[in-house]
Structures are given as structure tokens and as C-alpha cells.
Amino acid sequence: MSTVILVLLCLAIAGRELYLASDKRLPRAQKDLHELRAQLAELSRRHDALRAEVAEAPAVTIPQPPPQPPPGALYAAERPEPDPEVLDRLDELTTRLDRLETGLGTLSSRLAEADLDRAAGHALARSLDAAEQVIAELRDEMLERLGREEGVVPGLLLSEEGEAEALLAGAYERCAAEYGLRVRVREQRSASGYLGTAFHLSGRRADALAEELFTYVRGLYDPQDPSALAALLVELAKLSGGGITRIGAFTAVRTPNALLCGLLPEDLPEGIEPWDLATRLGELPEDLRTDLTWLC
């Protein structure tokens, strides 16, 4: 099962990269297509005008040579030459027509290429959408099975404008592993200027895990505590802006002036601000919250 999901994820990532590459070309191809069609219309108009001009040009009449003079004549009759101005005009028109026909051929080729690029982009987009749908269905099925067999714990890690995102993510995943959790799904999350990751973790039941985490934090007194949970809270305390970390109901919130921790319901609305969470934590009974501002 895991191998199939990994293969599908790799295919989706590769498809996304190809789609992004082709998608970047689509606006340019559409712009080129519009310009090419305008040029084609203009060249066709000029072509028709030149054809009409050629049709209306005066015909060149070359008179028949006069009879040859009888033998012994001193001078032969001279043949009249066609009008040079008319010949030059005809040559000019012929050259311009040749250029127009060449330009029309080039434009037709470029239009065909643009149409092919657009069709390929649409086909790739449809394939990518289908792959994403399959992956989403497999992910939901996997989480449903894990929820029945091992338990699934939702997690969240956000910081203002993604501050220290890599450090926080590393500390978060070490903390999860310390408490017997495995990261099953990571999803990029952004809301109200906060960037980070939403997690689905498996291996523990959410209620018992949240109580265990909160009990440990309430007994925390040393910022040099060697536990991964303490390291995660210290990284959160170092943020200059706001931040949120959640493992199930266990919630820690960093505001510019405080670091609060407690147990909040798991089904809080997405995009909730750290200050709102801090307010909710402050309203909890004392046995469900603790103040860790001293870590800051």
C-alpha cells in the first residue's frame, strides 16, 4: 500500500512540474497566437491588395519587329523596347508577393505549433487533475484505516510569514517521534500571513496523547530540558512574531509577549489567529492551561 502511494506521489510531483513548465508557456503561447492571427489577417489583406494592383497594372505590349530590310540595306530597323518603368513595377510587385507568401507560410506553421502547445497543456492539466484525485482518495482511505487500527492525530505548525519554518518542522517531527507518532501526511498551510504545515500523525490515540503532553509541560521548569517537546517549545519561544503548534488537543501559542499552553478542542476553525487562540487558552480553567512565557 505504502509503495503504491509513494509511486503515485512521485508521478503527481513529476506531473505537477511538467504542468507548471507548460502552464508558464500557455499565457505566452496565447499572446503569440493572438499576435500571429492579427499578422495573418494583415498579410492576407495586403496580399489581396497586391493581387488587385497587379491585375490593374497596364499590360506591356511588345510590337512585332518590322520586316528585315532587303539585302544591301545600310541600316536595319530598330526594335522598340518595353517601358522600363512598367517592368520595374512588375518586378517589385512580384518580389513583394513572394515575401508575403513566405510570411504566410511561416505564420501558418507557428499557428499550428501554438495550437499543439495549448492542446498539450490542456491534456497535461486533465491528467494531473485525475492523478491528484486518485491520490486524495488513497490518502483518505489510508487515514480511515489508520484511524480504526492505530488512531490518527491531527497536527499543526504555523509561524508568522514562515519564520524559522525549517527549525520548527524538525523540532516538531522529533517531538512526534519521541511520543510514538509517525508522520503520515504533510500539507502546506497558509492563513492570514501565517505559513507552515498541517500534519496527520498515527500511532497513538489523540485524547491520551494530549493529556500526556500537557502533564509533561506543566512539570517543565528548565529550558535546557533534554526532551524533544521542550526543544519544540523553546524554538517556538524564540519567534519574534506569532506561532502555533498543535498535536491533537495539545496547543501552544506564541504571541509577541507570551507563550501559553493548554488543551483546546481539536475541531477549531482553520485560519484562526494566534491571538484568538491565546485568548481561548486564557479562558480555560487553570487545570487545563499553563503559562510558559518564562521560556521567552
From TrEMBL:
Region of interest called Disordered, as start-end residue ranges on this chain: 56-79
Start-end of Pro residues biased regions: 63-72
Coiled-coil region: 26-53
Domain of life: Bacteria
This protein's UniProt keywords: Coiled coil
Keyword check for Coiled coil: yes
The protein's name in its UniProt record: Uncharacterized protein
Organism name: Actinomadura vinacea
